Amino acid sequence: MEGPRQYPLSMSPPELRAFLQSARTVAVLGAHPNPLKPAHYVPSYLKEKGYELLPVNPAYAGRVLWGRKVVGRLDELEKPVDILNIFRRSEALLGHLEEVLRLRPGLVWLQSGIENPAFARRLEQAGIPVVQDRCLMVVHRQLLG
């Protein structure tokens, strides 16, 4: 039987629950318009739960998702971000590192199947906690019902 999910050492499950309750803005790197893709239905769930979504994907820049215009880069976001929810291949993450460091989100969340220890280590060294290889929708349901 599998044990409990592990979260960043800097954030226990009760701390993560409190953070998710207080967070308001979620940037979605790799946002997708196809409702069958996790990069669409996970953010749609978060929108239903009251989060403001900021979609980021150069392939869909200018389109509207979740009532917001999609931007091509994280640097184009014009407001602070509580959670950066990432739907990108693990090997692509280091290419976003400098933008993420400039953005300074309260938490970086790498969706299921996405992990990059070097990327996570650099962010955590900068004081940005990271959750890797977990579905934000599933964890949100577990912690907040």
Write the layout of secondary structure elements.
Elements: H1 13-22, E1 25-29, H2 38-48, E2 52-56, E3 64-65, E4 68-69, E5 83-86, H3 97-103, E6 107-110, H4 117-125, E7 130-131, H5 136-144
Parallel strand pairs: 1-2, 1-5, 5-6, 6-7
Antiparallel strand pairs: 3-4
Model description:
- 32% of the residues lie in helices and 17% in strands.
- It has a single domain (13-144), classed as Rossmann fold.
- With 145 residues, the protein is α/β, with parallel strands linked by helices.
- The chain has a five-stranded parallel β-sheet.
- It is globular.
- The protein contains five helices and seven strands.
Task: Give the proportion of residues in helices.
Answer: 25-40%
Question: Secondary-structure element sequence?
Answer: HEHEEEEHEHEH
Helix count from the secondary structure assignment: 5
How many domains make up the coordinates?
Answer: 1
Largest sheet: number of strands, sense, barrel closure: 5 strands, parallel
Global mean pLDDT? 93
Just name the CATH architecture.
3-Layer(aba) Sandwich
Strand percent estimate: 15-25%
The CATH homologous superfamily is termed NAD(P)-binding Rossmann-like Domain
- Terminal Cα span: 23 Å
Throw out a few tags for this protein.
alpha/beta; about 140 residues; 5-stranded parallel beta sheet; 5 helices; globular
A few lines on this structure:
With 145 residues, the chain is an alpha/beta fold. The protein has five helices and seven strands.
